[in-house]
Design brief:
By secondary structure, the chain is α/β, with parallel strands linked by helices. The protein has helices at 59-67, 87-94, 99-109, 116-128, 142-152, 178-182, 197-205, 220-227, 233-250, 267-275, 285-288, 323-328, 340-350, 356-359, and strands at 2-4, 8-10, 19-21, 37-39, 42-44, 48-50, 71-75, 134-137, 156-160, 167-168, 176-177, 189-194, 210-213, 257-260, 280-283, 298-299, 315-316, 364-366.
Length: 367
């Protein structure tokens, strides 16, 4: 602990950029590495989740992500559930270069109401493709969409926000008790963002199947500037992993998945997040660079179009390859932006581990 004047003390915390993975005394062959990941009844070929952001996930890219062995999550509060045909909207946004003008335009476009029938139609489209169906909604709107979600019978529900608590209290709307809500629906629930041990324990005790660690949305610096809040991811993941272990003992064997959701810029960050204790990583920006991404070279999250307090701008990214190449290669770049699955496999092999669970024990150093 560090003193801040006479009345405050603060912990030292570390981000993923402050740590590195230490090679072990042995290496493995790539073919010996098993990257499979299972959350509840959903089994995946690798532990990567495409974030529920309009710039990367449409019903089509959710389906393709599933066909490639991963998990895509559709944002139920995005353009796909507000407009019958949102393609002209994406084209309109892509034609605006100025980030400030784009944020103002998004505030207008996202002011359109969510259409419940479109929620059902989008989820039915993904279900018909035979891939895992995962959808995201904010803690504020989860009650209003609960019936549609239940009717769709989705595989996973993600309740995702800047900061999510086990009980959302409001003086102007019905309070949301996550324990009651989670136990009232059949779909397993992933909840986040979470930044510390105590919040993670509350979410696990509420019945969450998975906990998202971090802000997600790619706006961590803006959130720090606007709200004064920051999540150093290496420390946060390690703290939530400790909560997972303690809750496993407390519950008599119930294992809750820890999913890193923030500061994931490339394959190296994915590996370090898992080495810190995560079971999987929710990835945004790298997938925005796919040729099929709806953002057409631009990337944004819900914080960019918040109606009263935007905490991030739409960013410009280069489209570099297909979604398949970003996931599975081959890679033509040396910056960790392509072949994310192959790079993770190689990291495990190079450090002597054969599966994700054992890799969580990898040795780390501060750099």
């Amino acid at each position: 602990m560090y003193d801040i004047g006479r009345s405050k003390r603060a912990d030292k915390a570390y981000g993923l950029g402050n740590v590195a993975i230490v090679p072990s005394k042995r290496t493995r062959d790539d073919s010996d590495v098993d990257l499979t990941w299972k959350i509840d009844a959903v089994s995946l070929d690798f532990p990567l989740v495409a974030a529920p952001m309009d710039s990367i996930m449409s019903p089509a890219t959710v389906i393709q992500m599933g066909q490639l062995g991963g998990l895509g999550v559709l944002n139920l509060e995005g353009l796909w559930t507000r407009y019958q045909n949102p393609q002209p909207i994406f084209d309109q946004l892509a034609a605006v270069d100025d980030a400030l003008a784009a944020s103002q335009m998004m505030q207008r476009l996202y002011a359109a109401p969510i259409v419940p029938e479109l929620v059902s139609a989008r989820l039915a489209e993904i279900t018909a493709a035979g891939v895992p169906v995962a959808a995201a909604v904010s803690q504020r709107n989860v009650r209003s969409l609960a019936d549609r979600i239940a009717q769709a019978g989705i595989d996973l529900l993600v309740i995702r926000g800047t900061l999510v608590s086990a009980q959302h209290v409001s003086q102007t709307a019905d309070s949301l008790d996550l324990y009651d809500f989670i136990h009232s629906i059949d779909s397993p629930v992933i909840v986040g963002g979470c930044a510390n041990y105590h919040t993670a324990m509350h979410l696990m005790r509420a019945g969450a199947a998975g906990v998202l660690v971090g802000f997600g949305g790619g706006a961590r610096h803006a959130i720090h500037d606007v709200l004064g809040i920051q999540v150093p991811m290496a420390t946060a993941i390690a703290d939530v992993a400790a909560a997972r272990s303690d809750y496993l003992d407390e519950s008599g064997g119930r294992y809750v998945q820890v999913i890193a959701d923030g500061s994931i810029g490339g394959s190296g960050d994915i590996a370090k997040a898992i080495a810190c204790g995560a079971d999987a990583a929710m990835v945004g920006a790298p997938f925005a660079r796919a040729n099929q991404a709806p953002g057409q070279g631009y990337h944004w999250g819900p914080e960019a179009w918040h109606p009263s307090l935007p905490r991030g701008l739409r960013s410009h990214v280069d489209t570099i390859a297909s979604l398949e190449e970003i996931l599975h290669g081959p890679s033509s770049r040396s910056d960790g932006s392509m072949n994310l699955v192959g790079a993770l496999r190689r990291t495990l092999a190079s450090t002597g581990f054969t599966d994700v669970k054992s890799f969580q024990k990898a040795e780390l150093i501060l750099v």
